[in-house]
Amino acid sequence: MSQTAVNALLERGRTLTTPALRAAVDRLAPPMNTVAAYHFGWIDAHGQESASDGGKAVRPALALLSAEAAGAAPETGVPGAVAVELVHNFSLLHDDLMDGDEQRRHRDTVWKVHGPAQAILVGDALFAISHEVLLEVGGEGAARAARRLAVASRKLIDGQAQDISFEHREFVSVAECLEMEGNKTGALLACAASIGAVLGGADDTTADALERYGHHLGLAFQAVDDLLGIWGDPAATGKQTWSDLRQRKKSLPVAAAVAADGGAARQLTALLTADAKKSEEEFADFDEAEFAARAALIEEAGGRQWTADEARRQHDTALRALDGLGMPDTVREQLVDLADFIVIREK
């Protein structure tokens, strides 16, 4: 499938999901509905209609494909797509505040524009509505889908807690990093990849296989994110240069580099050990050259290449999870193409 066809698949997810997503956000009391609309890119900071980038929409696309994998119409997966998007954006609102990120999707984050209190409240509200939207579908499928969403949400929060705890540690193993990323990113993509099928009446065997596909796809997605978090072009990512290094994140390239042998790994370890003891104010005074030096050591120690290889390994494992599942060939091809897109993206 060409990039144009993948874009069309993502756009279908946006087109079918956005009206229901807007309706869900409209349930919020003012000013939370306006703050949420700003976060989603529907309006600007002054309340005017906006055509801002609303994100990649991978999760909605997966939820709709998931429904089709179970033999249902893509529209069957819409409540699941909306619920997953609400949880995802709940996490973004809180993550931006916790991480001190001032930019997302090329504009100021919610806490920067509307204040920390609104970022917390709107995030909480989106989380609550996600379950409301699902349970309103009714029936056994809705209850099963809501349970999967609840489990994924817990794991996502576990992953964020792990990620924060890593920032001031001197050493994080690759295994710990993969566990954290499996929770923080893999769990919700796993839910997106199975929730439409559950709503479409799929049995647990089918839903579990799609969940495994989504989990490993999530690990591939996060591995690519980790690469972009250090070496990504700010013009494409919408974040600062060396973004993850500024936040002292122990992402996969860092963990893999520290675990390697050689002089670069030892130099990097010494720098990170010293960094962990610095205050936020001291660390904020670092200049571009200091972050560039750390990025160069990570690359020299092999962390960049290992992470790129890991993204491909997780991609391949995700596709193997689809083996033996009965689904239309076109749906299988689209799941493969979406996986391919995730490992070659630049933002």
Automatic annotation (TrEMBL):
Q: Name one Pfam family in it.
A: polyprenyl_synt
Q: Which GO terms describe its molecular function?
A: metal ion binding; prenyltransferase activity
Which UniProt keyword terms apply here? Magnesium, Metal-binding, Transferase
Question: Its Gene Ontology biological processes?
Answer: isoprenoid biosynthetic process
Note the InterPro entries from the entry.
Isoprenoid_synthase_dom_sf, Polyprenyl_synt, Polyprenyl_synt_CS
Q: Does the keyword Transmembrane apply?
A: no
Report the sequence similarity comment from the record: Belongs to the FPP/GGPP synthase family.
Q: What is this protein called?
A: Polyprenyl diphosphate synthase
Protein's organism: Streptomyces xiamenensis
